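Course assignment 3, question 2. Fill in each field.
Student: A.L.
Task: Predict the tertiary structure for the chain below.
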Amino acid sequence: MAAVSDVARREATGLPAQRNSLVRAALPDEDRAMHVFLRTDRMMLRRFTAADVDLLVELDSGPEVMRYITGGRLTPREEIERDFLPAFLGYYERFAGYGFWAAIEVTTGDFLGWFHCRPREGGRLDEAEFGYRLRRSAGARGMGRRGRAR
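Answer field:
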C-alpha cells in the first residue's frame, strides 16, 4: 500500500501545515483502519503502530515531560523500540478494551501523547488502571482532563 504524504493528507483533510514532520493527520475515513478507540471534537485516541517509534522518542525526550516520571531521565530510543512499544502493542491482543492509545489533536493532526487503560498489576481484569503522558503544551490546553473524562 502506498504511503500518503503529509501534503496529500493536508489537502484531503483541509488541515493546516504541520509544525512537526513526525506528526500525521488522521483522515476521518481511516478510523477503522487506524483502530480508533475514541474520537471527540478535539481529540482522537487510536492504537499505536510500529511506525510510531519516532513519536514516542520525541515525547520521552522532553525533560519537562519526564521530570515527574523518571526524575528527568530521558528514555533512549533503543528502550522504546525494545521494551515500551512492543508492550504497548501487546495489550491490544491480550486484553479486549485495554491498551495504550496515541492521542491526536483532531484539528491539527498533532501527536499529543498517550493514554492507557490496563488491568491493575496483581489485580482482577475488571480493576482498571488509567494513566497518561502528554506533551506539556497538551496538558496546558486541558487535554489530560478531557481524556480522563472519556
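Instructor remarks: The beta strands are 36-39, 43-47, 99-105, 111-119, 128-134. The CA atoms of residues 10 and 69 lie 34 Å apart.
Grade: pending
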